[in-house]
Sequence to fold (307 residues):
Amino acid sequence: MSNYLTDHEWQKIKQIFIKQSISEVGISESDEVPEIVKGNFLAYLQSHYNGDMKYLERNLEKRFSPTTLYPGTQSIITFLLPYYQIFPAEWAEKISIYVTKKDYHTLAKSISIPVVNFLKQLDANFRPRIFVDSAPVIDKYWAWKAGLGFIGKNTLLINEKYGSFVFIVHIFTSLKAPPDALKNPLKNKCGNCTNCLKACPTQALISPKVLNASQCISYLTIEKSDNNSLHQVKKLVPYIYGCDICQKKCPYNNNPQITPIKDFLFDEQEKQELKNWGTGISKFPLYLLNDSVLMKNVNFIKNKYKS
Ligand code: B12
Ligand code: SF4
Ligand code: SF4
Fold:
């Protein structure tokens, strides 16, 4: 067995993704992350920008080295799940559009399984691992390295086709990347724009690519979500779960493509229910959200943040 993926095998992997409507796929060698990215990460922790997200302080060795996290890894296949859809206006100002009908962690896994099965046929001694937001992995760095976008001043990965409204997923493999599949990472394309920095209601984006997460509305409503932080947010914006303000002001999100992933989309009837909920006419339509990321926070929304 060659320990490289052949070009043919790489094309086959991309085909498996395309059959599932996933076009943004890349691969990179799983070396340690460069000193500059480590330095940024450590500076962020030293400034306590992580707030109460103590998990970011743990497992730094694994976070900086995929082979320490998962021994035997030689390359990382990274793909993007576009999630943009149009929400009723009443809802769009309250809940981030990254709330999808089906939970993206579950969907990422089901999309990856055919690829994992194919990789197992190529190396029966290794169990490829799927990571989606679930392990000490610097997701945006690996997506950038795989050529899937540039890192914007809002700190997010911006993809040329879908803008920043994408989730990032990785499959760790034991096979090396075919040299022709390696891409040059993209340079930052923000130019003189500072829309995101100017638009942030809490000044959490303190300078280009530096986010004081402890001040970010997304952190205050999802991660912390205690009474104090919720009141702090309520004075500023209607958001109750996540925040899209900096992304909505980004020119790369001007005309975003609707996600091709059908499982993410709420249908018209469901949107109507959500709209009614957004205006307080009806009760929160729990049945719509059984399989959504919002579900875990429904109780907090009902109990702590009544308008
Ligand atoms: C913790 C976390 C949060 C925290 C903190 C975010 C943050 N920027 O730190 C909070 C709760 C605030 C948050 C919010 C959101 N999050 Co979040 N979050 C994460 C998580 C779990 C870890 C991120 C992390 O390591 N932060 C630590 C700091 C140090 O990282 P950083 O700010 O990115 O800093 C780096 C840059 O400065 C970078 N850097 C500086 N210059 C350069 C130059 C280059 C070329 C490169 C490569 C890097 C680089 O180096 C630093 C260290 O790596 C990731 C998943 C993961 N495992 O990676 C998802 C993730 C970043 N989140 C995601 C999403 C969708 C969101 C929200 C949009 C959700 C929402 N609508 O509310 C917001 C966006 C807010 C924003 N403007 O960033 C997606 C982003 C997808 C994308 N397009 O980039 C991720 C990747 C999850 C996923 N797998 O899809 N999140
Ligand atoms: S998500 Fe909202 S609070 Fe966080 S950086 Fe962007 S605009 Fe600021
Ligand atoms: S709003 Fe402007 S500065 Fe911010 S990420 Fe988008 S292009 Fe870059």
User: Anything to note?
Assistant: The radius of gyration is 20 Å. Residues 1-298 form one domain. The longest strand covers residues 75-82.
